[in-house]
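job 3f2a | input accepted
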Amino acid sequence: MRPPVPFGQYVPGDSPVHRVEPRAKMGLVAAYVIMLFTVGDFIGLIAAGLLAITAVAISSVPSRLVLRGVRAVSVILAFTLLAHGLRWNPATVSLVRLGPLALDPEGLLTGIFFAVRIVLLVVGTSLLTLTTSPVRLADGIERLMSPLEVLRFPAGEVAMMLTVALRFIPTTAEEAEKIVVAQVARGARFDVGGPTRRARAYVPVLVPLFVSLFRRADELATAMEARCYRGGEGRTRLRESHLTLSDWVVMISGAVLMVGIGVSL
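job 3f2a | predicted structure (265 res):
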């Protein structure tokens, strides 16, 4: 049985989205984020959602992997809904009232709008790491920051740090899941008691998790030193990545479309 792919980890494939050059995909993601933060109503969010669904369908990445990020921010989504929907002694009509607290329909609608925006933001940005290998992603980030090298900016080192940080996100999630399963097999309970007791139950998970992360970081540093990594200066690449005409067309047309939707809707 093939193990599940952690959220954010690269999913190999040969779809049109996989073949787009990383810098072009970063430009499209930036345009998508701009569109999400400029639309002002649900019609704009629907258009953004249709674009995200189309991109996921073209990428051939299973939707369950894309939606794993939504589960990771479920607490933020719940807080967004409550922060906008709850009112203290509201003067307007309320849907549900519990003492001085009431659920305001207008505030709830605003909370749903922002929650949907967060969901689309997670889906759109996670598609970048799901369809781009860490090596190509680091290469793209380094090439984007290469003009800053004239100011003695360490573009290669920063690109490597960002790539390692992105790569450690799914690794941390996978390691935490393994530790939780091991603790449950030993009789630990994470679903009993109130919030304080549940939080204390995760203390035995955090300690081995941090130990494992430090061990992985030390092994990574040793492996990089063994391969004579000394920064980006003079480093060669097995495969050189170049922006082709099709990449420029996809990036410019997609960016114009998304920014246009954001401004008009």
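job 3f2a | The beta strands are 86-88, 97-98, 101-103.
job 3f2a | closed
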